[in-house]
Specification:
Length: 208
């Protein structure tokens, strides 16, 4: 079992937290395994089929366990942790449909739309972005990368920061900053006693 208490030593940023966590043998967390991961896979695989999604980009691919449950024809995975990216590269080294890149929100500007897909996804990430400026950069990059839809799986209420978690009512930020995106569905968690996250599905009203 992971000794999570060690992960909080000398942590100055969300990036450092996740790199230290993975480098010490930690995983993406309970939400990326077992029944919570299966629930997320059911929702997203169904969405892929129903909306004829051909390409996906994920901001926060983690250790790749959740990814292994998805049916994606073309996929780009980004993560702030070098260790996580290396894990994914090794795990999916024979899968030519998947590409992986290290993500640094401060050093990311995609004017040529290199990182673009029908669907952009963010799963169990937002409440781990404890820095306000990093949260805003991340949200802009997430939505800029999506041609048609964005799926966010996260909590949606404000709370004070505790260790590496800060819950945010992100839907208000989207309403105030991204006028071309419309919330079209909310899918409540199948296991509300085990996770505070729900699915929020946004559509680009300019492209669809």
């Amino acid at each position: 079992m992971e000794n999570k208490s060690n992960f909080f030593l000398k942590i100055n940023s969300s990036r450092e937290y996740w790199e230290q966590r993975y480098s010490m043998g930690g995983t993406s967390g309970a939400g990326s395994y077992d029944k919570l991961a299966e629930f997320k896979a059911e929702v997203i695989n169904s969405f892929m089929k129903n909306y004829q999604i051909n390409s996906v980009i994920e901001f926060g691919c983690g250790d790749g366990n959740q990814l292994s449950m998805f049916d994606f024809p073309s996929y780009i995975g980004l993560d702030v942790s070098r260790t996580a990216i290396k894990l994914c590269i090794e795990r999916f080294k024979y899968d030519k449909s998947k590409s992986f890149f290290l993500y640094d929100s401060i050093c990311y500007k995609d004017n040529h739309a290199i990182f673009k897909a029908d669907l952009a996804i963010s799963l169990d990430v937002l409440y781990h972005l404890v820095e306000d400026n990093i949260f805003e950069l991340y949200m802009n990059h997430l939505f800029e990368s999506a041609e048609r839809y964005v799926i966010i799986y996260a909590s949606n209420f404000n709370s004070k920061q505790t260790n590496h978690i800060k819950h945010r009512q992100f839907s208000i930020w989207i309403d105030n900053n991204l006028s071309n995106w419309k919330l079209i569905d909310i899918i409540k968690n199948k296991y509300p006693n085990e996770s505070l996250a729900d699915f929020f599905i946004y559509q680009n009203i300019e492209n669809d």
